[in-house]
Write a structure and sequence with these properties.
Strand 3 and strand 4 (49-53) form a beta hairpin. Helix 1 (13-22) packs antiparallel against helix 2 (70-81). The protein is 20% helix and 37% strand. It has 112 residues and is of the alpha+beta class. It contains two helices and six strands; from the N terminus they run E-H-E-E-E-E-H-E. Strands 2-5-1-6 form a four-stranded antiparallel β-sheet, with helices on one face. A two-stranded antiparallel ribbon has the order 3-4.
Amino acid sequence: MKKIEAIIKPFKLDDVREALGEIGVTGMTVSEVKGFGRQKGHTELYRGAEYMVDFLPKAKLEIVVPTDDVERCISTIMDVAQTGKIGDGKIFVTEVERVIRIRTGEEDAEAI
């Protein structure tokens, strides 16, 4: 099993969620996060004062899938979330040793 963490632009979240559902992803965790990379941040004007916005809003998706489904999930996320502009995000893939469903005690593939 693998855990896919995708950091994407917030306005792409609904499209990515829908596309992943169409390929059989049955669950995910989504968090509102802030960060910066090459995009750095920008300045904004508020009530006549200019200020620096260092951290930009992003959406973080966490999905655990069988190893066989990883490439399909990654390509789906990339196809839908990509705008071609700086700040599109990143995808991280890590190994998952064990999954346990708290309610039933099911483990690993049955718990996904």
